[in-house]
Design a protein that fits this description.
The complex is a heterodimer of chains A (about 260) and B (about 190). Chain A has helices spanning about 1-5, 50-55, 80-90, 105-115, 120-125, 150-160, 180-195, 205-210, and strands at about 10-20, 20-30, 35-40, 65-70, 70, 90, 165-170, 200, 215-220, 220-225. Chain A is α/β, with parallel strands linked by helices and about 260 residues long. Chain A has a single domain, classed as P-loop containing nucleotide triphosphate hydrolases (Rossmann fold). In chain A, the strands form 2 sheets. Chain A has a 6-stranded mixed β-sheet with strand order 6-7-8-3-9-10, with helices on both faces. Classes of the chains: A alpha/beta (about 260), B mainly alpha (about 190).
């Protein structure tokens, strides 16, 4: 468990991913420590979103490995990965991706409901996010009745409501104006810091990246770290952790349908 | 300041006379602001005084325009250090960053690496300013925001230029072209 000895909560090594004949990742190394906020930057098509999706277990890499909390993530089957995502990961995407048929409250409660929490518990916990995010009174609105900034704050609350170990954000302010984007980022960083949540955030915007503790660059499917903190550890990988039940330490929900996972897009 | 490094960079390509240096400078860096002859020779004599260039082939009494200037090892070292060193992330760096990028391409040095270092320096500064804005009173935040947006303009230029390095190298046609292409396709 080299990456655990590096202090990484989540890391990958030698990641390769192809879409047909096109390489998206060509040997990507990356690591993030507990509680750290890291911005993943790079031009369009550089592979930064693919990297995020591989780290989050949404995509399976063709080569290389992903480790979370000292265990292999890439070798899990889809059901296990889906469980892990629900138990430990939160997501915020460029366009909130709220479920349009659900109210703001139901949207925020969704990760808890999918994780098998009781309805009353899920709603009570979801409700707690409205005041700090400035969403008071919007509980029953559907996404079509929310402004861009409100939608993105609902999406942020949904990403954090289950108190994930890692929050994955992909262009979290992408569609917002400067001031609204700033508010969302303030809330994202404050929320993550308060929960101790680690954040991996893809952005092409420097102003957004400036909220992170550090940035890495993705170019042509490889990661470079200008601060030199995520150099791949030297030497071959020793005893590779097996796919030993990553989700075993969490309550599981055998009835949940992985296909219904809103994060699996 | 940047003029002397620009001249050093041109001299690293090949020894040259003051007139040719001016012509090259104007072609690459001075398109909107040609370099006066007086400044060319003043800069060259300062560089010679500091041991960064040698003036050859002139007999005493001859004017500076007859001399052939060549870069010294000290000059090469100073140039390399300047190219690799990110500029302090202040607003209004366009000219100096452009000079560095063009020189790097002409000389076959890693332009992309220099731009990465500059981006990192800019982002470090933006992080500081973002912290000021988030933690301080709004009055400080106003000034921080202004600086942040100027840095952002530089960063956009850095991104765009990084994406255009190959095109730029083709247009300049310098010896750096092959090296750069190799770097980009490594």
């Amino acid at each position: 468990m080299n990456d655990a000895s590096n202090g990484y909560l989540l890391s990958c090594r030698g990641l390769q991913k192809w879409f047909g004949p096109t390489p998206a990742l060509r040997g990507a190394d990356f690591g993030v420590r507990p509680g750290e906020i890291v911005a993943v930057m790079g031009p369009s098509g550089s592979g930064k979103s693919t990297l995020l999706h591989c780290l989050a277990g949404i995509l399976t890499p063709d080569e290389g490995q992903v480790s979370f909390d000292g265990r292999r993530l890439d070798t899990l089957n889809e059901a296990r990965r889906s469980e892990l995502r629900r138990a430990s990961f939160g997501f915020v995407f460029q366009f909130g991706q709220l479920v349009p048929e659900l109210s703001a409250l139901e949207n925020i409660a969704l990760p808890l409901l999918l994780a098998g929490r009781r309805r009353s518990v899920a709603y009570a916990r979801a409700r707690r996010w409205f005041a700090p995010l400035g969403l008071d009174g919007l509980e029953d609105r559907r996404s079509g009745e929310l402004s861009g900034g409100e939608s993105q704050r609902v999406a942020l609350a949904r990403g954090l409501v289950a108190e994930p170990r890692v929050l994955f954000a992909d262009e979290p302010t992408g569609a917002l104006d400067s001031l609204t984007g700033e508010q969302v980022m303030d809330l994202l960083v404050d929320g993550a810091r308060e929960l101790g949540t680690t954040v991996v955030m893809v952005t092409h915007e420097a102003r957004v990246a400036a909220y992170a503790d550090r940035e890495v660059m993705v170019r042509d499917g490889r990661v470079s770290d200008p601060s030199g903190l995520t150099q791949a550890p030297s030497g071959p990988n020793g005893a590779a952790p097996t796919a030993r039940d990553v989700s075993g330490h969490r309550p599981t929900d055998p009835t949940a349908d992985p296909a219904a996972d809103p994060t699996a897009s | 300041m940047s003029v002397s490094y620009a001249l050093l960079g041109l001299l690293e390509q090949r020894p040259s006379h003051g007139y040719d240096l001016k012509r090259q400078y104007d072609e690459y860096f001075g398109r909107d602001k040609p370099l006066p002859f007086g400044q060319v020779y003043a800069t060259l004599s300062r560089l010679a005084r500091d041991g960064r260039v040698l003036a050859e082939g002139s007999s005493p009494g001859e004017g500076p325009e007859r001399k052939l200037y060549a870069i010294t090892p000290e000059g090469q070292a100073a140039l390399a250090a300047w190219l690799a060193r990110p500029e302090p992330p202040e607003p209004h760096l366009q000219t100096i960053l452009a000079i560095k990028t063009i020189l790097a391409i002409l000389l076959g040095r890693p332009a992309e690496t220099y731009l990465d270092a500059q981006r990192h320096a800019h982002l470090e500064r933006m992080r500081e300013l973002t912290a000021v804005r988030r933690e301080g009173p709004l009055l400080d935040g106003l000034l921080a925001d202004h600086a942040i947006f100027h840095l952002e303009a530089d960063l956009r230029w850095i991104e765009l230029t990084a994406a255009r390095l190959e095109q730029l190298a083709t247009e300049l046609g310098g010896p750096g072209r092959t090296a750069l292409a190799k770097e980009l396709h490594r």
